[in-house]
Amino acid sequence: MTTLKSKLQDDLTAAIRGRDELRSSTLRLTLTAITKEEVSGKTARELSDDEVQKVISREAKKRREAAEAFAQGGRAEQAEKEKAEGEILAEYLPKQLSDDELRAIVAQAVEEARAAGAEGPRAMGQVMKIVNPKVAGLAEGGRVAAVVKQLLAG
Known about the structure:
Blueprint (H helix, E strand, L loop, with lengths): L2 H15 L3 H19 L9 H24 L3 H15 L8 H17 L8 H12 L5 H13 L1
Helix pairs in contact: 1-2, 2-3, 2-4, 3-4, 5-6, 5-7, 6-7
């Protein structure tokens, strides 16, 4: 078993023993998503830590989007619950890049793309190809794309 998955299971056991309803339900849902991912496809397999991290990040993104939707729908209590679940999941993810760090990485990629002859908005694909491997798991795709568009336009 991967170390991240076993950490999730250990934390789930501790949450159940400590009667922490929110934490235990959040970890249960996440472990279920991991198991579902493991058995999808033709053969069952065990996910690597990186793959487990991707599942956790996908679950955290679902929580953020749900929190926004509930907040817009005037259901503040449900939005807070979703936000709290997202914060629990964030503990298992690597620290996200700050805006300044992200901007520096993207600026460097824009320079590389311009050196290769890419200019203007059409260069977005080339810049994203350079940036994505560097920021995988450290910044959300939408944030990265927004910074790339901003720097290419400017």
